[in-house]
């Protein structure tokens, strides 16, 4: 079903790394969300008038905020598809994340307003009456929202879009909220219990939770999360598949929006290797990273001494001592000079409680205890991986 819809409305829909294709995905989702949410607003508002229930009216205005969110999504995808220019050389892809953040802010605003109205209804209750027509309208809205949740989730998964994933989460939350309202009205009809204000408060809680979750998911790519462990493993496997590259470290991925990611990493190579040959190796790795992952990659060469028994022994010792501080600690850029000079960097995870200076001093003490003639220069890096 999804492929049939995409073939109709999104030409070349399988080419998801193309900004123009992503834009069409966003326009399709935004247009569907705008139209359906406006329809649901009208339907639920009628149901709210028929029942006199604040919880149903609250749910209607929740759909109105969803319509506003869909409009923001439409604008966000249009802006994100703009070409890079002099003021924005990395493009406008982050506008998609900003659109998702704006949607979440709208959701939170509506949730606060509905919570206030529901509290007022609890303090000053008015009896709500469920009519068959109102019940049918609420059931229809639940079915529509179930489809919208599936549709936005499927599109969001296809193009890895936080904005569409936020819209899917919001739709699913609406299903729960509307279901709670309907069940509550049925209970009130047959038991006489006045649950309307409390159900409105429950709807507001669903809305606030949905808004907070959506805000968190859209803030992460704006703040700069680390690459996923699977992605790191795939990148490492690709680069190290060439025997000229001995190891990698300091991997960083910068996300400028879907379809626009840049990567930098240091690659250790033999210090006595041919510079021209190693340059060709790095060029091939950068091109393959671009082809396979859509990354604009920059790989920095770090020469490593090989075949020197003393350097190999000290490197192994430094690595063993670093792992005594933390199992994930690694050593790189190891160099042995004249007069006992030894320099290297150690990478420790962010969650290691020792300060950088404490890590440095601990390693110096451990090394000098076994190699007292060394003159050490140790740098400390923090990283989530490698």
In short, what is this structure?
By secondary structure, the chain is α/β, with parallel strands linked by helices. Helix content is 64%, strand content 13%.
What order do the helices and strands come in, and which of them pair?
Blueprint: H1 2-9, H2 19-51, H3 54-80, H4 95-123, H5 132-159, H6 162-191, H7 196-223, H8 229-240, E1 247-255, E2 261-270, H9 275-293, E3 295-304, H10 309-325, E4 330-336, E5 341-348, H11 356-370, E6 375-382
Parallel strand pairs: 2-3, 5-6
Antiparallel strand pairs: 1-2, 4-5
In CATH's first tier, which class of the largest domain applies? Mainly Alpha
Order of helices and strands: HHHHHHHHEEHEHEEHE
What is the correct CATH architecture of the largest domain? Up-down Bundle
Q: For the record, what is the CATH homologous superfamily label of the largest domain?
A: Cation efflux protein transmembrane domain
Which bin fits the share of residues in helices? 55-70%
Report how far apart the termini are: 42 Å
Uncertain runs are none
The CATH topology assignment of the largest domain is: Alpha-lytic protease prodomain-like
The major beta sheet can be summarized as: 3 strands, mixed
Overall body shape: elongated
Mean pLDDT: 82
Give the structural class: alpha/beta
Radius of gyration computed on alpha carbons: 29 Å
- The helix tally amounts to 11
Which sequence of strands runs across the widest sheet? Answer: 1-2-3
- Strand composition percent: 5-15%
Count every beta strand, where a strand is a DSSP E run of 2 or more residues: 6
Total number of domains = 2
